Each structure stands twice: as C-alpha cells, then as structure tokens.
Amino acid sequence: MPFPLSSEQKQTAFWVAVWLGFLFLLVTLGPVLTPFLAAAIIGYALNPGVDRLDRLRFGRFQMPRALSVALVMLVFFAAIIALVLIVLPVLEKEIPLLKAAIPAFLAKLNDLLGPRLHEMGVKVRLDSTGIRRIVSEQMASSGDQIWSSILDSARVGGTAVLGWLAMLALIPVALFYLLLDWHPMLARIAGAVPRRWIGSTLTMAEEADTLLAQYLRGQLLVMLVMAVYYSVGLTIAGFEVALPVGILTGLLIFIPYLGFGLGLLLALMSAMLQFSDWSGLVAVAIIYGSGQIIEGFFLTPRLVGERIGLNPLAVIFALLAFGQLFGFVGVLLALPASALLMVAFRHLRRHYLGSSFYNA
C-alpha cells in the first residue's frame, strides 16, 4: 500500500515537475533561444564595463544606464567591424592574385608528385588542364545527381542563410535589453530560488562569477600572446601581410578551428603569391604548427586552466569531452562550463563528506 504524501512533499513534487517541464520547453525551443543565449554570454562579458560607466558622474549629471549600454555596445561592435576590415582588404588583394598563381603552383605540384603517381600506376596530371578534364568527366558522368544536389542545397542553404541573418539581427536587440535590465533580472532569478537554498545558491553563483572572470582574463591574455607570436613569426619569415594575418589569427583564437583555420588559409595564400619556391609554405607549416602546440598544450592549460582551477590534463579532457557531446559549440564553451561544473562538484563533495552516508 503506497504511503500518503504530506502537503510539503506534494508541493515539492509539483514544483519539481513544473521546473522539469520548463527545462524540457527550453530544450525544445533550443534553436529559437540561440540568439538570446549568445546575447546573454556577450552581456555577461560587457556588463562590468556598463556598470563602470554607470558610476561616472559629471557634476550633477550621472550617466543613464541606457546611454552606458549604447556606448559599450558601440565599442564592442566597432571592434568586430575593425576585425572584418582587417581581413577584407587582405582577401580583396590576394584572391585575384591567387587565381593567377594557381596554374604555376599546380605546375610545381605536378613536377613534384607526377612522377611518383605514375610509378604507383596513377596516370593523372596535376596541372590546370588535367584537373579541368577530371572535373568535366565527373560532371558528365553524374551531371543529373550534381544538379539535383545543387538545387537541394540552394533551397536548404537559402533558408539557413535567412535564419542566420535573422538571428544575427536579433542578437544586438536582445543584448541591449538584457544589459539594460541586467541587475533587476538577476534579482528576479534570485527571488525565484527557494529560501532554504538561497544562501548556498548565492555562494555558488559568486564562486562561479569569480572563476568566469578569471577565465575571461586568461583567455584575453592567450589571445594577446598568440597575436604577437603569429605577427612576429610571419614578419621574421618575410611575409608582407604578417601584421593583419597575425593579429587576426591571435584575436580569433578563442573560436576553436575558425580563427586558426582562417589565419592559416590567409598565410598559405600569401606564401603561394609571395614566394617562388616552397620556403613560404614550409615557414607557414612551422609557424602555425608550433603555434598550435604552444597554444593548446602550454598557454591555454596554464593561463586559462590554472586561473579557473583546472590542471592541464583536465583542460584537454574538457575540450575533447564537450566537443564530443555538443560539437563546435561544446568546444567553444568547454572551459567556462567546466568551471561552473567544478563549483557545483566542490559543493557536492563538501555535502557528501559531511553526510551520514559517508561518516556512518
């Protein structure tokens, strides 16, 4: 015969069910919440700057919160536009030159690999004529499939592009209102926590805030060091676009694969255009290969991992684990999420060591 539930147990079960339903709704609405989540992450990083402007006084005039938010957002998006303006001139200059340099590069590649491929029984020329012939044969043999794939991709891709544009347009709007209402919003969240848990919840939130602030400072230091490293390395190797490519690679290093990949692509294009032999490509391989080792195995574990209390092995495991579970977004958020989990684990361990289950 089941035991009757008390009034307090019924209330607890009801509110647990409500919160589980709320979490399920959030998971279901994941794609819709993406711009709001991005705005919340950016807002967390920008809010200290807004708070500092709020405290400024010019005589009797105090900076309004809305004006502080607008100024901080203006500086933030101006920095993003500046990064774009660093990349676009390089691409605009190098892409046309790259098209002209491709035939000479393919001729070198054919001279280097062609004899070895013929020895292996592969009869193909790696020049522009040979590659054009291979592509035309493939398109002739599977033209209908390629055409249908292109149409399908265009339909899906067009919808995806419109979705991305809508999301990007929504992020600044959500960011503005989140920053404007930041402290009242946090107060409302704290007010929704059951009173018996409010003390431990606020303690965990303060610890998590301290760790995330240390993470941001460590990540900024890694970005600065890598920007200097790539700029100096490419300058020593004699690259004409060393400064913009090096700065871009370093500043975008916080986005796994994208920053490194874009910088590597620009450096390879410069090497093909500027150097008549293979020395440029060898220099790029050495500089970017060493940079990945320095950043992945030394700087990030020490400057970021030690600041949030994670040892280098834990940092590497966190990157691999979150990447496996959540893909690219998981890699991007691996370290701050690990810092939050570590705070929760620390409190759970303290509760476990003080429980009768452990001490009995």
UniProtKB/TrEMBL annotation:
Domain of life: Bacteria
UniProt keyword rRNA-binding present: no
GO cellular component: membrane
Chain ranges passing through the membrane: 12-45, 66-91, 161-180, 220-239, 245-268, 280-300, 312-345
UniProt subcellular location: Membrane
Coiled-coil boundaries: none
Primary subcellular site in the record, as a coarse category: membrane
Membrane topology: Multi-pass membrane protein
GO biological process assignments: transmembrane transport
Keyword Transmembrane helix: yes
Cross-referenced InterPro entries: AI-2E-like (IPR002549)
Keywords for this protein: Membrane, Transmembrane, Transmembrane helix
Pfam families, sorted: AI-2E_transport (PF01594)
Family label: Belongs to the autoinducer-2 exporter (AI-2E) (TC 2.A.86) family.
Name of the protein in question: Putative PurR-regulated permease PerM
Organism: Pseudoduganella violacea
